[in-house]
Amino acid sequence: GRLEAVTQQMGYHPQYLDSFLKTQHYLMHMDGPLPFDCRHYIAIMAAARHQCRYLVNLHVLQFLRAGGDPQWLRGLDFIPPKLRNLNEINKILAHRPWLITKEHIEKLLKISEWSWSLAELVHAVVLLAHCHALASFVFGCGCEQDEGLGGRGPLKPLSPGNQCFCEATAGNGCSQELLRINRKRSLDSCMELDSLRERMQRIHVETEGREETRLLQQDREEGEGQEAEVGVQDGRQLSIALTHLRGSLLADTDGEVTSATNLSCYMQDPDFGYQDFARRDEDQTQVFRIQDYSWEDHGFSLVNRLYSDIGHLLDEKFRMVDGLQSSAMAKRQGCEPSVFKRGIWNYIHCMFGIRYDDYDYAEVNQLLERMLKVYIKTVTCYPEKTNPEMFDRFWKQFKHSEKVHVNLLILEARMQAELLYALQAITQYMI
Predict the structure, then answer these.
(1) pTM, rounded to two decimals
(2) Does the keyword Cytoplasm apply (predicted)?
(3) Percent of the chain topping pLDDT 70
(4) CA-CA distance, 211 to 204, in Å (whole number)?
(5) How far is CA 403 from CA 47, 207, 325, in A?
(6) Which residue has the higher pLDDT, 353 or 369?
(7) Cβ contacts of residue 254 below 8 Å, gap of 6+?
(8) How far apart are CA 68 and CA 75, in angstroms?
(9) Inter-helix orientation angle 53-65/222-248, to 10°
(10) Disulfide check for 74: which of 78, 219, 267, 389 has CB 3.0–4.6 Å away?
(11) Residue 257: beta bridge partners?
(12) Predicted local confidence at residue 340, as pLDDT
């Protein structure tokens, strides 16, 4: 479950990192409504919307380790209709979440044998929002470009390279007992890429051997020939995975991973992207008013009821990012830390059409300089367009950890925005 570049960047804020790791591990590896292979495939679909090879490659490997069908890695045309039907809300949540309606929810819940349960759908929605937001962080901190280096800037190594995702939380508040249970139950063992590649290559060689045997025995007993053919078909399934890994994960002699994946097979309608939210006085129904549906009063209880305990983990994460120290950043802008953070948070929500009636949006222009606003909007709305210079150019006088803090605010504000729209639609369907 390696996310070393991500964890090293988040390591500048270790309390938040601990909360993030627990949520990530619970979503992907602990008991829940969705099968483990489906969770990783949903993550692949979500990351592909933003062309995030870093996350796609990670979840391709975890999908295979969880026993996923290698055929699925050929694209959406090769997955079960139930999973493929998730594509529409994946697309909308990633780019224009305000378009989600109860009709989208109803369609997924009432498609005869391919229907989703409410619990499964909530798990899927949280996964989608989590991976979309994490893609923003990956691009925002440069993990996508500098995957093998752990991102930009001087980094604090958090843990030895052979530690797994859950082990990185040790010493950050995660109890040893929880770690022991997680290690036992997790399907995400610390298998190195080299080991997986060797296993796949061995299978490939064995497959070729079976093919030769089949050809030699073809003129002999028919039964033996048929048995060999079955073995070849099994081998071909795994050979597909090897082919995909060769195409998507090119390893050099040092074992560093280079991305070369064509992600178009994991998404439909690739031209669908973010558009500025339309604010029209004559159509106020489009504006999402936070006093009508908020995380604290509505979203938390719904998600926690349908997917046990995830609400508590998400709520802890939202509170943790809000509690991070930002006094230096705020001081440079001449305001209180809480005022500065709220300006960033509300600006992000505003781009998704979420409005706070008790907030004066004129403060955004006073608090956030133009270059910072451009950076926040790019990372939030179309992170795949983030270039290496953007991270280095905004706030040259600020510390690396402060820039990471801004990216954590982007991650959490974006995730909450997607969840609010999706959970509101589910609530309207249930009513």
Answers:
(1) 0.76
(2) yes
(3) 67
(4) 11
(5) 23, 50, 12
(6) 353
(7) none
(8) 13
(9) 150
(10) 78
(11) 251
(12) 87
Q: Cβ of 221: how many Cβ atoms within 10 Å? A: 9
Provide the 8-state DSSP code for 297: I
| Cα separation, 48 vs 56, whole angstroms | 7
Task: Examine residue 206 and state whether it is found in any structural domain, yes or no.
Answer: no
Whole-Å CA distances, 306 to 118, 280, 426, 427 = 7, 35, 11, 12
d(CA 293, CA 423): 9
Per the listing, tokens 């939210």 go with 277
Residues 6+ apart with CB under 8 A from 302: 122, 423, 426, 427
The token duo for 218 is 């073809």
Choose the weakest-confidence range: 341-345, 356-360, 386-390.
Answer: 386-390
CB distance 289 to 355 below 8 Å: yes
Round to whole Å and give the CA distance between 240 and 69.
10
Which member of 38, 52, 174, 381 is catalytic? 52
How sure is the predictor about 145, in pLDDT bands with cuts at 50, 70 and 90?
Answer: low
State the Cα–Cα distance between residues 213 and 236, nearest whole angstrom. 15
Looking at residues 123-131, what average pLDDT do you find? 98
Mean pLDDT across the chain: 77
Residue corresponding to tokens 């504006």: 287
**Helices and strands in the chain, H and E counts:** 19, 4
Q: Which domain holds residue 60?
A: 1-145+265-430
Helices 400-430 and 370-381 pack at an angle, to 10 degrees, of: 50
- For the chain, the domain total comes to 1
Is residue 391 over pLDDT 50? Answer: yes
Cβ pair 317, 20 in contact under 8 A: yes
d(CA 304, CA 296): 12
Helix (H) or strand (E) holding 205: helix 193-217
Contacts of 307 (CB under 8 A, 6+ apart): 32, 33, 119, 122, 123, 126
266: nearest Cα among 24, 123, 60: 60
The label of the residue with tokens 């409005």 reads: 355
Residue 241, domain member (yes or no): no
Q: Are 408 and 122 in contact (CB under 8 A)?
A: no
Does 52 participate in catalysis according to the annotation? yes
Give the model's pLDDT for residue 402: 87
- CA-CA distance, 291 to 358, in Å (whole number)? 9
How far apart, in whole angstroms, are the C-alpha atoms of residue 255 and residue 125? Answer: 34
Q: Phi and psi (nearest 5°) for 144?
A: -70, -45
Residue 387 lies in a domain: yes
Flag whether 333 is in a domain. Answer: yes
